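Weekly structure sync, notes
Attendees: PL (lead), two postdocs, one rotation student
Agenda item 3: pending single-chain targets
PL asked that the sequence for the first pending target be pasted directly into the notes so everyone works from the same version. It is reproduced below exactly as submitted, 256 residues in total.
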Amino acid sequence: MAQLSITFLGHASFKFESDRGTVSYFDPWLDGNPTATMTAAEVDKADIVLATHGHTDHIGDCYEICRQTGAAFVGHYELCEVAMQVGVAADAVHHLNPGGSTTIRDVEITMTQAHHSHSLSDHVLPHPLPEGVLYHTGGAVGGYVMAYDDGITVYDAGDTCLFSDMQLISQMYGPRVAILPVGGKFTMGVREGARAASLIRADVVIPCHYSEELGQPADIEELTRQVNILSPGTDVVPLQPGQTLVYTASSFAVSG
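Predicted structure, written out during the meeting:
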């Protein structure tokens, strides 16, 4: 039976493991993250690393994990160019922009739009810059749809506000699990997150990008109440760092 394990690593960082054993790290910010339960050095296996944008709390340890495990890196064009300059093998780098797709092992990855600020944290840049290389601080900001061969599809919206085309993403890709930021300071908040859930209509919504530690508290009970009204077929499943949700054929279980 089709199954996907989703482990919350803290803040907006996740680990996905498919039933075929493909391990993906999504926006892995581990070192220096006050909510993380592991460090980058503890990552001993990764097949794919995905980055939504270049802010520290998302690009985080992406490149380091790729270098130490040989994982493929997926990101927007500018982040991919940086990846190759900091030691990620060129044949492991998958350049995307919103609307583009790439297939790695048993998952097709499509970058979606998101609405957020653009910058690139300088801790990931090579110093000094190679001669003739110019890095733009911007680049795309996106989310990702991850469609596994076994039929399970996940939509992680990345850092974004609410936008009406989330309904189109739902119609196009039919995600069964949606991961949504709800901190309400640098991303959408509880009210907007509940409306986003009603547009996406996934079986499960996992809220992220909120915590007292990072000054972005969110009332998850209120989120659940609103989602129950706006999208009664959707379960809100908050995870603590280190907890794993196992999604199996329209059902789930939480462990840890």
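Discussion points:
- The helical segments are 56-59, 62-69, 77-85, 166-173, 190-200, 220-230.
- The chain is about 20% helix and 30% strand.
Action: rotation student to compare against the earlier draft before next sync.
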